[in-house]
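Quick board copy: two proteins, each given as sequence then tokens.
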Amino acid sequence: MPERTGKKSIIMLKITTTIVLFLIGMLTQAQVSENRAIPDFSRIEVKNGITISYSVDPVPSAKMQSGSNENLSNIMLDVKNGTLKVYTADGNPVNGVTVYLQSAGLSALSASSKAQVVLPQILETRSIDIALSSGAKFTGMIRSRANTTVKVSDNASFNGRVDTGRLSGEFTDSATVVLSGNAYDAFLYTDKNVKVSALNLDTENAVVFASGQSAVRLHAGTNLSLNIADGARVTYSGSPKNVQYSEGALATIKDKSTNGLSAN
């Protein structure tokens, strides 16, 4: 499928990622660091306000940076059954702690309690599951050959480019999502004051379930199915050949010049 604004979205996301990494670098200047030996892992769980920067490398490694040795000694890195858990020993949130992680590959990523995840490089994988909750943030680019699942809830935010065969997104409870990239099949579910911007996501087949005052913007490919309830609003651009609406959905032409349409 053609990439209408692929280069532009990549550039903008790279700029955003660069800014995030720059801010992390500024915070880590004149700070203390610590290297820790860890076994290989393919899944990450991070919480307690910790920032992680992940990249692929055959040799697993972990480097931590913070403003004090006390903060570093409070950071726990546990690997069990291929899952790396990054958290504070006392369970309290921390600020200004960054953990740079490397492993041979990643298949799952979970961030909660205002943790932040940054991918400085494109993450290439077969399939990946991403879960963000309670104010966590994600910034990065993913190239997944098969399936990508993204769950964002409870004031968490996702800003990423995803190139994948099948994209499943579940966004609830005031989540904020900015999606770009390519997906042959896309299934998006939103509920409870969610904001989704996917105008730079190219799809062949898209199914949207929107409810609970959610606002969704997307670009429609060949086939589009809209299921809208409870004051949700879906706006799309493009010229899909087949459009299906749920019973009772009201649709009106938003902008005839761009074939845009808004349904609620």
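And the next:
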Amino acid sequence: MQFEGGAYYPAAICLGGSGQMVVPRSTARCWTSLATRRSAGGRRQLVGGGASHDGDADRRRRQGSIRVLIESAEARNAGAWWKLSPSSTARPSVQINNLTPGGTLRICHAGGLPGARGAWHIPITANTLTTITYTYQTAMSAQESWRHTYFGTTANSGDAADNHDYDRDGFTNAEEYAAGTNPVQRGDFFRANNPQRGPGTFSVSTAGKAGRAYILERSVTMAAGTWSTVDTEGPLAADGPVTLTDAASPSGAAFYRIRVTGP
């Protein structure tokens, strides 16, 4: 301890005297045996035997802590961070202490991931650790979004598995996705309709689906590498009939197929 303007002592007791001696540097723990009173200025002072010390116990009792956990690992790896205004310090998943009530939490968008919220008020409670978990939603692929629409999940498993034929119409979920058809509605599946062949021409139609492109291909042997594109339509802006035509169909035997591409 140090008496103001004087020497340092390992311990000190002030007895009597006409004035108080102020011990400017100490901790509240050093004064547990002394009486405590509140000064006129609102601060808490520790007094005894003519010595006084401004304590920080009240201030500590009014403070709280906050822990922010950012999920997922993809978001953290992309550099997601948060700030507690008015501080400008950017932090990853971390805990900070000695906070007074109030403050505005801001989450940074990371790597184009969706879901980051701009800002919101965070209640800081005295002597309490407030934990907030913020989860970025990983962007779904087109096929995951399709699964979620029809099966309520993005997982390639169970009813939503690629190799499963949920509606028992002879087409797997993967085939229905490729064709843009409804995997839970029997009867809605890809069909090649009304094939027509005339002198030097061949045409075929199908029920087109939005977002899909339809390519008519021809081969005279069906061997790998022998298919050639003869007509294309799409990607379609909306569902509607599609007619594909080979305007130079050979006079001999030929094989045709429709290839469907999508998102």
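Board note added afterward: The chain has four domains: 1-61, 63-135, 144-179, 193-261.
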